[in-house]
Amino acid sequence: MNFEYSDEQALLSDAVTRFVSDRYGLAGVRSAAETKDGVTAANWQGMADMGLLGMPFPEQAGGFGGGPVETQIVMEAFGRGHVLDPWVGGVLLPGALLSALDPARLTELVPDVATGDLVLALAHEEDGARYVTAQVVTNARRCGNGWRLSGRKVNVLAGAAANRLFVTARTAGAEADEDGISVFEVPVDAPGLSRTAYRQYDGQTVAALTLDDVSLPDGALVGDEGEAFSALELALDTATAAICAEAVGATETMLHATVDYLKTRQQFGGPLSRFQVLQHRCAEMYVAVEQARSMALYAAVSLGLEDRDERRRAISAAKVQCAESARFAGQNAVQMHGGIGVTDELLVGHLFRRTTMIERQFGDAGHHLARLDRLGGLDNQMGE
Amino acid sequence: MELSFSPDELAFRAEVRAFIRDNLPEDIRAFAHRSGYYKADQVRRWQKILDSRGWAAGHWPVEFGGPGWTAVQRYIFNEELLRAPAPEPLSFNINMVGPVIYTFGTEEQKSRFLPKIRSLDWWFCQGFSEPGAGSDLAALKTSAVTDGDSYVINGQKIWTSTAQHADWMFALVRTDPKAPKKQMGISFLLIDMNTPGIDVRPIVTIDGEHHTNEVFFDNVRVPAENLIGEENKGWDYAKFLLGSERTGIARVGLSKGRMDRALELARVAPVYGGARLIEDPGFRQRALKLQVELKALEISALRIIDRQRRNPSDKPDAASSILKLRGAETQQASAELLADAAGPSAAPFFDFREMFSDNEVPQGVARADGAMRVHFAARPATIYGGASEVQKNIIAKAILGFKDKP
Ligand SMILES: Cc1cc2nc3c(=O)[nH]c(=O)nc-3n(C[C@H](O)[C@H](O)[C@H](O)COP(=O)(O)OP(=O)(O)OC[C@H]3O[C@@H](n4cnc5c(N)ncnc54)[C@H](O)[C@@H]3O)c2cc1C
């Protein structure tokens, strides 16, 4: 048992924390609002310079060999400063998918991803699919020496900025079958592909894609035909662990902001901080942050597990805790700020929108409780 | 003991329902279904329709244009509007400033203001809160100094909702800064929003909308005839205003309407294994618990109405804090259920200020633009109108007899 960061990890944590506090917070919200595609060029370049864009990739592929704990360090810092640039969507998530499906293809891409020249995106979610990972209606059929794809994808993270798209499509099976899902590399200028960029409530820019009989060469297929589901699930679990860490950082900032605010806000002839009911509420927030931190760590170290079910249980358990902590801490931070907490004026309001989205992103607490239940609960204690 | 509505009350409910069905303009219905709220012109149009039916001011005395309803009829009427959903008559006008004017105003003020307040020809906003005076409202500083036959106003209000649409503001201002208690130097003034020196600046809230504002006063001259009641008695009128017609504040119908919409979405939302969200045991339990809570709240509201009917009193009933507290919480819980049912379909930010937004995402089966907006817009419900913590203080002190200092 050892919870300590290595020297390198401690350095990474310091460096990312500094980077985030120099560039993000309310200033980051404003610069993100000015971008069309959701990537602030200067900050993305800053991430490249620090090695963050190549961080999660193996060294032999040209990356920096960071693992889940490094990701956890980065995401916690990103959460603290409300980083909207799509590191999860543009680097981590598609990277995790390719590394499971087609490592050779990943090796080709990593150098350009690491410099920031290439932004990747995974287009998977479909309209109305909710959190059902296997719900893929977009279809791909063989056509001569290649493929033809038709369908619609929504809420594609980094989808507006991406210059390399990886799209899931059904090559066999029925609507929600786990078998028969394949991944295709789709050039952004492919005839028949259209992209609409839009913002989500948390300020992130995402895209909807329409594929209207898009023609692709044989080599567009990534990995084995119809076999993408388990890689997809692993990639989504990786991203889930990452946003659990982001929730820790975001709730931590909200906690500190609330404590500071209560000490300065004067009502009824003194600071609000003198009311014990508010002190206790902050104490509960602190507990929520720490419980989330524990489970975010649990998620990170569980990503490497050989046993797929063990990994899935751990990720779902972590998401349940982090969603609940994000909900409690976020809602109470806003409540204790009073009116100013529901505005754009303070970072708290922006962070609250983000934590509210984190609660639901990649499956809400209800979805993950149900998955944990199907897998027999932690340690299969409730199983057969 | 009879907990259900009488045949007459049921007949009244049917009449209200039919009226809404036949008279609510289609664009208002469609916009509300999609967004969960209304635009200013929709509120104006609908209130005119209600007013021409004599229904705009449910609890006003008949002589000022009220319909002469019982408290239960008023309750039914509001609940039907909320659940439809259709806009409620503007609360600032009907529940707040109107009753203050017909109770404390002069005959001239009554005949000048009440008809236009009822018909919403004049839209009022509420200028109470200030940067330094939130929960501690009596700390307000905006000053009104007598100069000839006017007051000259200087200072700042904040959180003034709908000030951007308003023709008038009813405001609390400080007329006697030297009064021995801070509650004693406050007056209640009506201020024409077109008066020179008033500057309205928008505040954007977390739902991405512009509902509320800061309002700055720079030597704004207000005729002395716009004072309501006596100078330095404004705090009493404000307490009267905040205490009047509290039985509707639980807004049970609003929460029921949100639940209706959440269940509508849950019937189509897929979950693992080919089932729908409506079949998910966890989701069902949450919805059922909320139903129970809302039923309890509804009966509590009717019990308080009944008690007030039997023992009429000018003083607000401290038990109505139950309605504000749980009412706000159930509004939030139903909004959260709605956001959860919508799931990722509610993620795109939709700018409802325009019916056809720049940010419009072509979406199909599970169109749920308004769900996340409703969830965010519900958060301040436990902050405004007396924060939940303040409601609990009222219950602790006024009902349970706890004292600040033992
Ligand atoms: C969307 C919105 C619309 C509004 N519209 C209007 C309007 O039209 N006109 C108007 O005049 N005002 C309006 N308000 C203002 C509203 O009434 C105030 O926000 C409210 O009174 C709280 O004041 P505050 O925001 O300054 O919070 P504060 O008084 O600073 O309180 C902050 C938090 O501290 C806690 N707290 C406060 N007092 C106590 C206590 N005694 N014990 C324990 N905890 C406590 C509560 O959690 C509270 O939320 C609006 C507010 C909002 C958010």
Concise summary:
The complex is a heterodimer of chains A (384) and B (406). Chain A is an alpha+beta fold.
Average pLDDT, all residues of chain A = 96
**Which small molecules are bound?**
flavin-adenine dinucleotide
Instruction: Count interface residues per chain for the largest interface.
Output: A-B, 51 and 52 residues
Q: How many DSSP E strands of chain B?
A: 10
CATH-assigned homologous superfamily of the largest domain in chain B: Butyryl-CoA Dehydrogenase, subunit A, domain 3
Gap between N and C termini of chain B, in Å? Answer: 41 Å
Structural class of chain A: alpha+beta
Fraction of residues in β-strands of chain B: 5-15%
Classified in CATH, the superfamily of the largest domain in chain A is: Butyryl-CoA Dehydrogenase, subunit A, domain 3
CATH architectural designation of the largest domain in chain B:
Up-down Bundle
Number of helices of chain A: 11
Helix content of chain B: 40-55%
Spatial strand sequence of the major β-sheet of chain A:
1-4-5-8
Mean pLDDT across the residues of chain B is 92
Helix content of chain A: 40-55%
**How big is the Rg of chain A?**
21 Å
General form of chain B: globular
Order of helices and strands of chain B: HHHHHHEEEEEEEEHHEEHHHH
Question: N- to C-terminal separation of chain A?
Answer: 30 Å
- What order do the helices and strands of chain A follow? HHHHHHEEEEEEEEHEEHHHH
Family (chain A): Belongs to the acyl-CoA dehydrogenase family.
GO molecular function, one term (chain A): acyl-CoA dehydrogenase activity
Protein name (chain A): Acyl-CoA dehydrogenase
Organism (chain A): Tropicimonas isoalkanivorans
